[in-house]
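Many groups now describe folds with learned vocabularies. In that spirit, our science desk offers one protein's residues alongside their backbone shape tokens.
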Amino acid sequence: MSKRVIMAAGNWKMNKTPSEAVEFVNSLKDRVAGSTAEVVVGVPFVCIPGVIEAVKGSNIKVAAQNVHWEPNGAYTGEVSCKMLKDLGVDYVIIGHSERREYFAETNEMINKKARAILDAGMTPIICCGESLTQREQGVTAEHVRYQIKVALLGLSAEEVSRIVIAYEPIWAIGTGKTATTEQAEEVCGIIRELLVELYGKDTAEKTRILYGGSVKADNAKELFAMPNIDGGLVGGASLKLDEFEKIVKHDA
């Protein structure tokens, strides 16, 4: 079995104007050229056209931070998979805890989005993770397993082998708290075991599982070296050139 390619994916959230975004990726291109990791920037919708143009010919891929599951229709303010695909988007982040919390997204909605993204020829990055209360009550494994089970409903083994799953403990997002390497590895291992149960060992071995939650330059190398962690979904540190470059080059 060939080693899964490490992914360093930035989730910019609601940061950077279109011009700032282009300036950032233009500076990032040369810094990460030749990296062994797959480099992805998850930029706001309005930044996507400019960023895609700016990264042409480089090894940087572009992710959207959300999408609607319907192909078109009366959904004011929403964006479809067809629109993103037409721009040249490769990945779409779905199910982020902020979307679940602030916009009432359910596991069922995330499942519909995953189906639509795959049908459009893009790759979903499906987020999961527990709150501090859930961790303290000892239900992390059950909660994360449930999130992933529903999100993957109806997907084939071949499709699952292509998706990316991102484990982000909610208590470690933007708080400065990071799950210990052991805690992160344990839950990513639980997710991989679930994939073995649902789809078999071969599919589980191909599927990339990222860790997210205060990933920084000084902890990326240790995290990405874990057997079940295949990179990071990086928040705040992905907005800083030096930090993100170091994360991408974790093995340099």
Summary: The first strand starts at residue 7 and ends at 11. The two ends are 24 Å apart (CA to CA). The mean pLDDT is 96.
